[in-house]
Amino acid sequence: MDVIRTKPHRGWIEVITGSMFSGKSEELIRRLRRAQIARQHVQIFKPLVDDRFCESHIVSHSDMRMASQNVRRSDDLATRVDDDTDVVGIDEGQFFDTGLPAVCNALANRGKRVIVAGLDQDYLGRPFDPMPQLLAIAEYITKTLAICVVCGEPANHTQRLVDSSDRVLVGASGLYEARCRHCFDPSLAAAPVEPV
Ligand code: ADP
Ligand code: ZN
Questions:
Q1: Is 92 a catalytic residue?
Q2: What is the CATH number of the domain that holds 54?
Q3: Residue 19 C-alpha to ligand 1 middle, in angstroms?
Q4: Among 14, 27, 92, 177, which one carries the catalytic annotation?
Q5: Range of the structural domain that residue 108 is part of
Q6: Is 143 in the pocket of ligand 1 (CB under 6 A)?
Q7: Considering its fold, how many domains does the chain have in total?
Q8: Distance (Å) from CA 94 to ligand 2 centroid
Q9: Which segments within the chain are labelled E, that is strand?
Q10: Do the domain assignments include residue 112?
């Protein structure tokens, strides 16, 4: 029996990863816009936890934005991807459950180009699941770096500036800044806040 393949062997996974402010969302948006310009069918998702800027868009710190769908879990995402979708964009991958790598794998096996942006480390510099597992299975990896706001070196760390031991503390300016390995100080996040 002949099998008719409309989109043969096209699927793969791309991961864009690095610290906060390193340009992950900008790079994700750049790739998704180019796909849309080429009239490919693009679907964009983000986890519901991240509502810091806008409910239904992925937004960069430089205010680039694209409409997106909010999903609570990776299996919600899997069921929302249409058969005729060519490209699946996912922002804030680190806020998804551990099922995300398997969902991305299944989508790539269905012929989708899957692009995931997310933090590779948390505020203490620990690998941020499920990004390490995604990095292991991705065909293409882009590591983005910010600029250290203390010394100007390439910044691979997200410095938390407030006293909190919650792994997920959503926000940006005032709460976090980009720092290099020498200026990064995880103990700052646990230090008592000085009275003003
Ligand atoms: P990410 O998704 O990695 O958090 P974004 O793509 O949202 O990053 O934002 C990148 C933008 O953040 C930069 O183009 C720049 O305008 C801004 N920015 C703020 N602080 C820094 C910094 N320390 N180094 C580089 N860019 C920064
Ligand atoms: Zn530095």
A1: yes
A2: 3.40.50.300
A3: 9
A4: 92
A5: 12-144
A6: no
A7: 1
A8: 24
A9: 12-18, 42-47, 57-59, 65-67, 69-71, 87-90, 113-119, 140-144, 146-147, 154-155, 157-160, 176-179
A10: yes
